[in-house]
Amino acid sequence: MTDYKTLIRETRVKKGISQGTLAKLVEVSQPFIAEIESGRKKPSLDVLIRICGALEIPMFGGKSKDE
């Protein structure tokens, strides 16, 4: 089972989205996205929901639109 930080990073890269672009979409800073992906910081539920929306990742299991 993939953890959220790996899923976020892999999905972002697969979609060709930079950390900076994702940060703008989610309305957080690029360094914060980097810290989430590295596991140094945990996103709030609100930020996690926005990240999942921007990357089209289902929150509660299932497959993304790309799968």
UniProtKB/TrEMBL annotation:
UniProt xrefs under PROSITE patterns: HTH_CROC1 (PS50943)
Listed name of the protein: Helix-turn-helix transcriptional regulator
Organism: Lawsonibacter faecis
Domain annotation HTH cro/C1-type: ranges: 8-59
GO MF annotation terms: DNA binding; DNA-binding transcription factor activity
PANTHER family, per the entry: HTH-TYPE TRANSCRIPTIONAL REGULATOR (PTHR46797), METHYLPHOSPHONATE SYNTHASE (PTHR46797:SF1)
InterPro entries membership: Cro/C1-type_HTH, Lambda_DNA-bd_dom_sf, TransReg_Diox_bact_type
GO CC terms in record: cytosol
Keywords: DNA-binding
Transmembrane regions: none
Stored SMART domains: HTH_XRE (SM00530)
Biological classification of the source: Bacteria, Bacillati, Bacillota, Clostridia, Eubacteriales
